[in-house]
Structures are given as structure tokens and as C-alpha cells.
Design brief:
Blueprint: H1 3-21, H2 31-44, H3 51-62, H4 70-88, E1 97-98, E2 101-102, H5 104-107, H6 110-131, H7 134-148, H8 153-163, H9 171-197, H10 201-228, H11 231-234, H12 240-244, H13 249-253, H14 255-274, H15 281-291
Antiparallel strand pairs: 1-2
Helix pairs in contact: 1-3, 1-4, 2-6, 3-4, 3-9, 4-6, 4-9, 6-7, 7-9, 8-9, 9-10, 10-14, 14-15
Amino acid sequence: MDFSTKLSTHLARIEAGIDRLLPPVTAAGPAGPRRIHEAMRYSMQAGGKRLRPVLALAAAELFGEKSDALPAATAIECVHTYSLIHDDLPCMDNDDLRRGRPTAHKKFDEATALLAGDALLTHAFALLVENYPVALVAALVRELATAAGSTRLIGGQMEDLLAEKKADITAAGLEFIHLSKTAAMIEASLALGGFCGGATETDLRTLRDGGRHLGLAFQIIDDILDATADTATLGKTAGKDAKTGKTTFVKLHGLEASRRFAREHTAAASAALDRLSGEKTFLTALIERMAKRNA
């Protein structure tokens, strides 16, 4: 199966899983839950690259997918989408556009967006508890909770907000933000898939290593695109980082150095995954596709 066909197969499985595993809008009960479910689905079913769930499915498949990885893949997308909803709120990045359409707080209102994000975060862990045996649940919950918690995703977001008020953020400080945000979730995506596939501890360390480099490469490319692409291409407001004075790899290092860093981290991610056994053609091609993306 060629890369495009395989990617389409994964994406179709993910979209069907999201539709099946999220609470339906028509759920019985008062209007409040129905509105929250509508807002959850609005943000989750807005499209996007689905990179994190694809990585989870591909990693599980690499090791034979001993347990169905789709609930775990959906859980990681729930956490990712919750973080985007909250990032877009006026109290944080204050953005009106996400994936080419109004952000959740523009489509609904700020309170509904906030609660929809909360609900997606909670639902992610419910998916893990409800769909896996106890021994596997412990590993999956620990992995996702660590990646999404105060020392990684949330801590990185806090540091990102604080950095907007600093004129002297260092390269190490910027790398911490991206390691804590983007890289943490990509590491977790690969690790969750590895757990579902039955990966060994050595394999899991390798997956996390590759995910860390892949996450840095992904974020650096995002910074490059924000500085060079337009809003229609990105599906979100272009040039916003420069307008708000936000420190990015491009601002700190310049375009050419940022492109070099992206290539280096991409190569390091590929090298890490090369240490794994199994059929890695799809994952390798996915890493290459990510490095060359336009949006």
C-alpha cells in the first residue's frame, strides 16, 4: 500500500472513530449538555492534519497493534483540540480563525468554548479507562497525563504566555516551551501507539526520542510558515507572531537557521525510528511529508 493510500486509510479510521467515540449532539437531557457536545464536535470535526492520532495508529501498527489503538488515538486528539480551543481564547492567544473557520469562542461564546475544552480533556481519559484493560490503562493514563500536565503542555503554555512579556527570552527558554507543548504531545502520540502495539521499554524510549525531535521540527516549521505563508494557506491568522512580538525560532535565529534546525531535528527523528524493528516505510514517509508541508 502506497503512502497516500495508507494515510487515507488512517484518516478515514480516525474520522469514523471521532464520530463514534464523542458524545452525540442528540444525547438526551437538558440543553446544556447538548450545547457542549455540539461545541466539542465543532472543534474536533473541523478537519486538520490529524497528525497525532495518525502517529499513534502508525506506531501501534509497527508493533502489531495488540490492542485497538483508535480510542487512544482519539484521546490524544481530544487533548490536542482542547489545547487549541483554550489557546485561541481572548485571555491567551486571542485568535478568531482555526482550521479555516471561526474558533470555538467565535462560533459559540467564550464560556462555551472554555467548557468544551474542559469536556474534551476529561473525555480523553474516559476513553482510555473505558476501552482498555486495567494494566494497559495505567500506562496510557500515566503517559497522557504527564504529557498534558503542569510540567509539560500546561507548563509550556504558561511559560509561552510569560515569554510574551519578555524581551530577553533565550534559545534554551524557547526550546523549553516547544519541548513542553508541541513535542510532548507528539512524543505521547507515538508512545500511546507503542503501548497499544505491545512495544518494549527500549522501543518506547526510542519512540519518545523520535517524537521529541519530530515535535521540535514540527514547531520550527510552524514558526517558519507563520512568517512566510498567508492566512488562506495556513487556515489560521498568518503573521500573528510577528504582530504580537512573540519570540519564535524565526525571530530568535532567522529564517535560514530555523530551516537548518528543522532539517536537523527531522533527520534526528528519522534516525531514532530507524532503530526500531518492523515495517517503518509509512512512518518514515510521514516524517518526510511533515518536513515539506506548506500548512
